[in-house]
Amino acid sequence: xxxxxxxxxxxxxxxxxxxxxxxxxxxxxxxxxxxxxxxxxxxxxxxxxxxxxxxxxxxxxxxxxxxxxxxxxxxxxxxxxxxxxxxxxxxxxxxxxxxxxxxxxxxxxxxxxxxxxxxxxxxxxxxxxxxxxxxxxxxxxxxxxxxxxxx
Amino acid sequence: xxxxxxxxxxxxxxxxxxxxxxxxxxxxxxxxxxxxxxxxxxxxxxxxxxxxxxxxxxxxxxxxxxxxxxxxxxxxxxxxxxxxxxxxxxxxxxxxxxxxxxxxxxxxxxxxxxxxxxxxxxxxxxxxxxxx
Lengths: 151, 132
Known about the structure:
The complex is a heterodimer.
Chain A: H1 7-11, H2 15-38, E1 49-53, E2 57-63, E3 72-77, E4 80-87, E5 96-100, E6 105-112, E7 123-127, E8 130-136
Antiparallel strand pairs in A: 1-2, 2-8, 3-4, 4-6, 7-8
Chain B: E1 12-13, E2 26-28, E3 31-35, E4 39-45, E5 54-59, E6 62-67, E7 77-81, E8 87-93, E9 104-108, E10 111-117
Parallel strand pairs in B: 2-8
Antiparallel strand pairs in B: 1-2, 3-4, 4-10, 5-6, 6-8, 9-10
């Protein structure tokens, strides 16, 4: 059986507990400040994405160097955008490698957008290894202007 | 076919004492370098760099590659930011003697390929032994 102790009753009785709580709070504050300084909120899933929106559409960008457009599969369903693909390794025979830092392999990433998009009108461009998607929002979620009539 | 999953490699920022004039971060591009008997080939991932914005320089045995990206203004409000856009810079010291007149470079899908042919003197020579 789980015993729940009320923190307000306990913190006054155990100074070490209170110290522990303060330490945790400091850690949380500190990590928040650190995150803000780098401005990045990576999910750790390839590829890294940058997403922004205006009233009409979403913009999604990803850096996919060395990936052939035919090895890339993009699909949109409702609010979910899925990117799937493979970066093939370019194994050259009969050479000796000095450095191998460029990764290869498959990837699969799904992203949930805050609103539904019109999947028929999604535009995708791929230039210099950068994928750019423009996803227009579905008609019913677009902001509507309401005109006020003066009586 | 490979069954390996691609992992996110966080872009490594170059920390230098001298500041660049452009107010963008500078990253160290990941590279593959391989050597065959006749040439040395370098491949570097530099997404966002157009072929005319790459600068390759070979000074004695110092090879420098630079790539600048076109930084666009962000459209709308940011919802998620997992990477930053910046220029690329990396320098290598080559141990081989390179025939600098025959260096070729190409750029495709954000990947730079530099082919550095070895100079005649550095190529392995086969010496046939004749019987007398």
